[in-house]
Amino acid sequence: MKTPKWKKRVWTGIVLAGVVIVAAACSADKPVASNTPAETPKETKATQPKVPSMNDVPQGPEGEAIKLGYKLMNETNTALKEYVGNQMACSSCHGTGGTDSTASLVGVTAVYPKYISRAGKVLTIEDRINGCFQRSMNGKPLPYDSDQMRAMVAYLSYISQGVPTGVKERPWAPEINMKNPPKANAADGEKLYKQACAACHGANGEGTGPLSGPPLWGKDSFNIGAGMGRQWKAAAFIQRNMPLGEMGGIKQGTLTDQQAADLAAYILSQERPDFSLKANDWPNGDAPADVPYETKAKQAKAGQ
């Protein structure tokens, strides 16, 4: 019998994937603005490959690892509390264990190892997972040879088994960034947040739960080094995905560029944990303009 590709990827230790950063969800109790189509044209999303059901997980050690990985995705802050420094889970951003469209992880084990400019080097799946633990989870890295790390790789490989190994892109999960951002107004963003987001994320950004409404600022949220700490990535995520479904007369994806930018500006103007290693990011001096901190490479370039 031919061995399924996903088993080869998991148990030979070949790691070809990555995890992307964290994000949050806005909900609304009442309309806050007209449902004007977003000014930035939305990308046409490709159809996500069929995701295997957790009911079809095989018996034996492989299946147990996959199940543990799924549990860790959804209960990260409690199941791995010694490695998580806030009240978020992987599924806070990568909904339904990374299988829905908010920040899909389907196929992630097919595109890595991959060069990441923030690190200035090629990363493996373990590297990328640990990047999220240190930034989005404001915690510390998992041991690379731990059962927990192996389980997370096993789960990500399981949901990615329909994607050929070695592909360069995942069209159903494109890079999220606002290409032509407007000048943001945090004061307007505060008004919109209070009317449309506080019900899920709390009046003070404290959240209502890792899966129901993750914290957006404060000690229990992502730190400054997370991808969602960048203004235009956050704005693009909010515009593309929020609110989930339709809340208070506002449909998902109908926020304008200005509204999304204002919301991101307000959220990111609040206090959040620092990231001690942030100065080492983008070592080649190619940090994007919306990175909210100085890097060593940028400082060195300015001093030339």
From TrEMBL:
Highest taxon, organism lineage: Bacteria
UniProtKB keywords: Heme, Iron, Metal-binding, Signal
Cytochrome c domain residues: 64-160, 184-271
Matching Gene3D superfamilies: Cytochrome c-like domain
Signal peptide: 1-27
Record-level Gene Ontology MF annotations: electron transfer activity; heme binding; metal ion binding
Location of region: Disordered: 31-60, 280-304
Annotated protein name in UniProt: Cytochrome c domain-containing protein
Lineage start: Bacteria, Bacillati, Bacillota, Bacilli, Bacillales
